[in-house]
UniProtKB/TrEMBL annotation:
The entry's keywords: NADP, Oxidoreductase
Family recorded in the similarity comment: Belongs to the short-chain dehydrogenases/reductases (SDR) family.
Higher taxonomy: Bacteria, Pseudomonadati, Pseudomonadota, Betaproteobacteria, Burkholderiales
GO cellular component: membrane
Pfam families: adh_short
UniProt GO molecular function: oxidoreductase activity
The protein's name: Short-chain dehydrogenase
Top-level taxonomic group: Bacteria
InterPro entries: NAD(P)-bd_dom_sf, SDR_fam
Keyword presence, Acyltransferase: no
Amino acid sequence: MQTLPHTPRTALITGVSRSRGLGFAVATQLAELNHHVILTARDKSQAEQFAVQLRETGREATALRLDLADRSSIHEAVSHLARTIGHLDVLVNNASTMPDFNTRSVLEVDFDDVQSAFQVDVIGCWCLTQALLPLLRRAPAARIVNVSSGGARRIGSCKPGPVHSPAHSLAKYTLDALTATLATALADTPILVNAVDPGSVATHPERGDDADDLPPAEAAKGIVRAATLSADGPTGGIFRDDHPLRIISQ
């Protein structure tokens, strides 16, 4: 994938609440590419500490409270952005939840977990993207990147098999479908919409990260590439390790 030149841009990344998190890694790399990064989390103080770290290195970074399970929080955040930045070049929908981490069968789900997963990964992401469209349209060539997962890939494959964390996996599979649908709806604009599966990432040592999990900085690279695609880049695609798994248009 070709990328845009290193020009000052504004990027919003959701779910930046962990020092070893994927969101902070993405924010750091976009800041290094001269983006003014807006770090968001349900607890603003969590995002603020990482914004401070970036500012101490000379990068432009601000923090904002954003809870994807709370529609009023979404609209408050968007209203603030409309007053303060006027446009948005990059939206990275990274925030996610895995309430059924220990669930090993779709026949054993807790439907509170299902509701929670879909509320954050699908409905909240959808609501935020729609609310930010006026700001994204004001950018010369905005990019929307939805962070997918390997669980979504397993559901979408032709190989039958068990799906662990089914609420999370099905929510991410639906997010992939939303990605393609948004790309089609925005086909007559310069906005490109893609999903990226970062693979298994070492972000939760307390859960026992596997030895072969990718470091967040490495996993973030594919997301950053999708966030900086050139005008002739794909849209409606699902990528893993910079390789397209599916593209609806080019």
